[in-house]
């Protein structure tokens, strides 16, 4: 039986800004976006979250919820430096570390370097080290697999530590609202609710085949994780081949300006994730799903990697402009960046811009 810890920094970007700049402390703060209503919030401080401000929300909406909200530009170089320090703290206990981003990671401490023996005690020591050495707080989830550990880390934020042992997993998941399941987004949760699925207990009424029928390959994942079964190992050398986001709209879009606005919002989210992963890609892919569920993708590869948000926005909008979308209703847009700089270069790639 494995001992897995999921560490998640509390409002990471905003907490770093509040640590470094006294004028932000105790204030409702958004990292990313702008006071003129443009852009998207990357992270909000807990003071802002009380008003409903959250990540990936438009600045316009954030200001409506919290008119006194302060904005600051993200300093990714600083966040990366802090993240490296945090990774060093993890390595005192184990080398089996799977970073998910700058601010969260899985740790397998089944056999820890210092012989502590207790995953709960290791999580406590890591939290203390982060607080004393970096003046920041983290939340931790401890369990026997990645899925439950990740959910646990979110239960007592900020500065929380939650242990869910083997004997409590089934009961815990039975009572858990499906919206809290990692991997269940807003659209999937709404579909589940329409099917009478509100908790893990409800989800367990369906067979594996029924869930696959309704949710595709994710259905198989849902079938096992609701039973607490997750055999995925912590992978210290996991390599991301692509980074992307997509959004299914509550109402189909058909106006080009609305689509462009959504695409810009997606570009900001993709750029944020690329920065957090410290990646630079040269290929951008636009995905469109129509109201009849047919879908298309269009890609473009450049000679040099995207370095700025504006580069991703420009190329994404160019792909969109080249499509004939008159009178077509669109239910989903997706944007992905791949072909990362650190991957092996293909000798046959042309130096010219490619569209395929």
Automatic annotation (TrEMBL):
EC numbers for this chain: 2.7.7.7
Superkingdom assignment: Bacteria
Family stated for the protein in its record: Belongs to the DNA polymerase type-Y family.
Annotated site residues (Substrate discrimination) in this chain: 13
Active-site residues per Swiss-Prot or TrEMBL entry: 104
Cofactor binding remark: Binds 2 magnesium ions per subunit.
UniProt-listed PANTHER family: DNA POLYMERASE KAPPA, DNA REPAIR POLYMERASE UMUC / TRANSFERASE FAMILY MEMBER
Catalytic activity annotation: DNA(n) + a 2'-deoxyribonucleoside 5'-triphosphate = DNA(n+1) + diphosphate
Enzyme kind, highest EC tier: transferase
Role: Poorly processive, error-prone DNA polymerase involved in untargeted mutagenesis. Copies undamaged DNA at stalled replication forks, which arise in vivo from mismatched or misaligned primer ends. These misaligned primers can be extended by PolIV. Exhibits no 3'-5' exonuclease (proofreading) activity. May be involved in translesional synthesis, in conjunction with the beta clamp from PolIII.
InterPro entries, per the entry: DNA/RNA_pol_sf, DNA_pol_Y-fam_lit_finger_sf, DNA_pol_Y-fam_little_finger, DNA_polymerase-Y, DNApol_IV, PolY_HhH_motif, Rev_trsase/Diguanyl_cyclase, UmuC
Protein name: DNA polymerase IV
Residue intervals of the UmuC domain: 4-185
Keywords per UniProt: Cytoplasm, DNA damage, DNA repair, DNA replication, DNA-binding, DNA-directed DNA polymerase, Magnesium, Metal-binding, Mutator protein, Nucleotidyltransferase, Transferase
Gene: dinB_1
Localization: Cytoplasm
Pfam families: IMS (PF00817), IMS_C (PF11799), IMS_HHH (PF11798)
Organism of origin: Sphingobacterium kyonggiense
Assembly with partners or alone: Monomer.
Positions bound to Mg(2+): 8, 103
NCBIfam families in the record: PRK02406.1
Cofactors named for this entry: Mg(2+)
